[in-house]
Amino acid sequence: METSEHFPWRASASVPLQEAVFVFEALAEHLDEHLELTRKDGTIRALTPEGELVLNLRPSTIDVSIRAIDTLTVGRAMELVATHMQEFSQEQLAEISWRGNAVAAKHARCFRMVTVTGVVDLSSNIRRLTFRGEELQPFAQGLHVQLFLPRVSNALLPDPDTVVQGKPIWRDLQEAPFVRTYTIRRLDVAAGTLDIDFVLHHCRSPYTDAPGAGFAAIAEVGMRVGMFGPGGRSLPPARHYVLAGDETALPMIARLLETMPAESRADCIIEIQGMADRQWLPSRADCRIRWLERDETGDDPSDLLLSQVLALNIGPDDPERFILFAAKAEASRQFRQYLRDVLHHSSRRYLCAGFW
C-alpha cells in the first residue's frame, strides 16, 4: 500500500459552508470518478504516488489537508478543491484561506488571456483551435490547461476582477466563465501559440451543458478565452505502456507517444467515431495502434473501448508496465475497479481518468 511519508509540501484549510454535507457528498462522488478513495465515517482520503488529499466533514465546515511531492502538485489539488466546492455550493464562497509551507512557496501555475488565431477541422468530429498569448513558457511544464470560456456562447469573456496566487477570480457569478480542462496538443513558446483539439459530438447539447464543444463549434478568429495551468505530467518510466482512450484522450495519447523513449513499447487502443477521426501518431517507441470505430459497431461512446480493454489478457501487476485508461467517467471507474479489485494492481502503475 502507498504511504504519505515522503510528501514534504503541505497545504490545509477549513472551509465554512452552509450546506457542508451536500458539498462533501458531491465532492466524494466527483473524486470517486477520478481517484481511488477510502472513506470512513466523515473522512475521505485519496492517495496517489504524487500526493494525498484528505477531506473531513464537520457540522458547518469541510477541513482540507493536502500533502504532495512538490508545490505544483499541491497547487493542482488546491485548485481542484476550490473549483469544485464553488461549483457544488449554492452560495458565493469567500476566498479560501490556505496555510502550510506550499502556500508560501512560489506558485508555478499562471493565468493568461489567449486569442483564437486559427480554426481547422481535423474531421467532422474534431476541431483544432490555435491560440496566441504572451509568455507561454510556464505551460511547457505540463500536459493540460484549464480554459475559461464565456458564460454566453457569443459573448466576450471579461477580464478577471483579480488574480490570486496565479488564479483568476470573477466576483460576479453571472459573468464567471465556464471552466473546462483540455490537453495542449502543440505548444510553440517562441511563436507564442498553442493548439488544442476539441471533440464536437457533444455540441448537440445546449452550450451550458457542453461549453467546451459549444465554444469550439462557434469559434472564430479574434475570440478570447482565459487559460490557467499547467497541470498533468508525463507518465512514469516503464518498459511497456498500455494506452487506452476515446477521442477525448487522443491529444494526450499523441503527446505521450511523441515523448516516449525509443526503448519503450506501447500498445494503444483508441476508440473514435469513424475512420475520418484517425490521426498520424509518431513515436520513437515500438508502437502498435488499434483503432476502434463506433460507426462500425453502433456502440455508445466509451462502451466499445471498455469492452475491448477488458478482453485483453492484462494479467497480474507488472512493475515494468504502466496502464492509462482515459474516457467517459463511468467507463474509467469500472476499469479502475477491475485493475484494483480483480487484478490487484498497484495504483502506482495505472491511471484511469474520466475525461467527460
Report on the structure:
By secondary structure, the protein is of the alpha+beta class. The protein folds into 3 domains: 9-104, TATA-Binding Protein; 110-231, Elongation Factor Tu (Ef-tu), domain 3 (Beta Barrel), CATH 2.40.30.10; 240-354, 3-Layer(aba) Sandwich (Rossmann fold). The protein contains 8 helices and 18 strands. Strands 6-7-12-11-8-13 form a 6-stranded antiparallel barrel. A hairpin with a 2-residue loop joins β2 and β3. α1 (20-32) packs across α2. The longest helix is centred in the first third of the chain and has 18 residues, at 71-88. The radius of gyration is 20 Å and the shape is globular. The chain starts with 8 loop residues before the first strand and ends with a strand.
CATH architecture of the largest domain: Beta Barrel
The average pLDDT value, as a whole number, equals: 87
**How many β-strand stretches?**
18
CATH class of the largest domain: Mainly Beta
The spatial strand order of the largest sheet comes to 6-7-12-11-8-13
Order of helices and strands: EHEEEEHHEEEEEEEHEEHEEHHEHE
The general outline is globular
Supply the number of structural domains.
Answer: 3
Protein structure class: alpha+beta
Task: Kindly summarize this structure in a few lines.
This protein is 22% helix and 35% strand.
